[in-house]
Structure formats: C-alpha cells, structure tokens
Amino acid sequence: MSTGMNLTLKVWRQPNSQAPGRMVTYPAADISPDMSFLEMLDVVNDQLSLKGEEPIAFESDCREGICGACGLVINGVPHGPGKGTTTCQLYMRSFKDGDTIHIEPWRAAAFPVVKDLVVDRSALDRIIQAGGYTSVNTGSAPDGNALLVPQDIAEEAMDAAACIGCGACVASCRNASARLFVAAKVKHLGILPQGQSERAQRVLAMVQAMDEEGFGNCTNEYECEAVCPKEISASHIAFLNREQAKACWNPPRQRGASDGA
Ligand code: FES
C-alpha cells in the first residue's frame, strides 16, 4: 500500500524575464515524506516531461546546504518552514498529505527572474567584487600558525563566514535589503588580521555597491535572521553600521596617495 502524500503545487511559471508570469497548478502524487523538496520537484518535472510539457526551471547545485543556489519561496517563506534549512535540505515530511504548497522565486528588484523559479543573483557577486576580498600579496601559503588569531575572533569570523550568499535575507525583507549579506562579509574579513589593511575602504565600497544594485536599506525587521539557513545573527548588521560610521568619519586614504610615510 502506498504511503506517499498527495499534494497540490501552485508554481510560478514565467518563460523569461520579459514575459509576464502566473501561478500554475500541478498535482504531486505519491510523494515520499523522505524526499527532499527538490527531489519532489524532480518527480513533478519527470511527469511534466513525459507529458511533453516544459519542466519547471529551478536552481540547485550541491543539494547539501553549501552552495546557496537553491532558494525558493515556499508558502511565502524563503527556504520554507524548516528553521536554519536550505530548500535542498527541506524534507517533504514537513508537509501533510493533502497540502497545497505555493512555490515562488525570490522577489526583489535586484534579483530579476530569469525563468520560472530561477532568478539572477549576480548583484551579490558584484557587491563581493567591490570589496569582499583581501588583496594583500601573501605569497605562497603560510604556515597555519604563522599568524595567530585569538580564538574568540576566529569563532566570530567563522560565524559570519557561514553565509552561503543564497539571498534569502533579501527575499524575506520588506525593503529587499542585502544588509545581512554585506554585514556577514564585512565582519568575516574585517575582524581578522589579514583584513585590516582594507577594512575601511571595504565597508564603504561594498555598501555603495549594494545601494547601486537597488537593494533597500535595513529598518530592523529581523526577517533576514529568521529565514537565514545558516542562522546568521542580525547583530552583524549593528557591526556593519558601526564600521560604516567609523569609515565615514575617518575615510581611508586612496591607494597610491602620497602621505610622506
Ligand atoms: S543546492 Fe546548494 S545549498 Fe541547496
């Protein structure tokens, strides 16, 4: 006897970025509670292909919560009902037989829809390109203990580095703000010894890039923290605010500027 669930999916279909989109209803029959959400979509897509219909476009890569590719808005919540969970690690046992599930792409002006559930998140890449790196020439790989990092600093930096850049923070925010993403990157690099030389210029460049990409500002809604699959704390945004204020009060010198030193 089948123990599978019978579900109704309402899925955003949009052929390309220019065409209008709409919600389309599909049955998802005999779904195992042990399937991941993406495996369930794979099953539905196989059935659509067999019928000669266009499969639902969605993104995934690692399918183990590492790459950040798999963002879907499920019943209005980025990554769905599981706390601290990416869409690929959400299991169908989180739903009940007979449920109707609404599936939409990330909604933000800075994330234009490419097709169906796939959005263009390259705006986040351009924020990283603006300053989310350390450009000091370090030569070949140094010994692991050549540059000592206090344990508490290392742990704080690692907490921030857990950000996988999925964009759920943006999708959850009423302002479509990327401030939690930027805060995680600024903190990760800004508190480590290797990141000090570009600390001020990094925060100014990344915030400027964020603004230019059309992301909104933060009004302390905390939705970002609630949906983040890596449970990045909104307290990092307070760090970002302090870093930005300090950099504005004491602007970094331009590279190559003569200072007589
Ligand atoms: S597919 Fe990589 S995090 Fe989900």
Tell me about this structure:
The protein folds into two domains: 5-114, Roll (Ubiquitin-like (UB roll)), CATH 3.10.20.30; 122-249, Fumarate Reductase Iron-sulfur Protein, Chain B, domain 2 (Orthogonal Bundle), CATH 1.10.1060.10. The protein is 33% helix and 13% strand. It is built from eight helices and seven strands; from the N terminus they run E-E-H-E-E-E-E-E-H-H-H-H-H-H-H. It has helices at residues 37-50, 122-131, 151-161, 168-172, 179-190, 199-212, 223-227, 235-249; strands spanning 5-13, 22-31, 73-74, 77-78, 100-104, 113-115, 118-119. It has a five-stranded mixed beta sheet with strand order 2-1-5-3-4. Residues 257-261 have low confidence and may be disordered. FE2/S2 (inorganic) cluster binds next to loops.
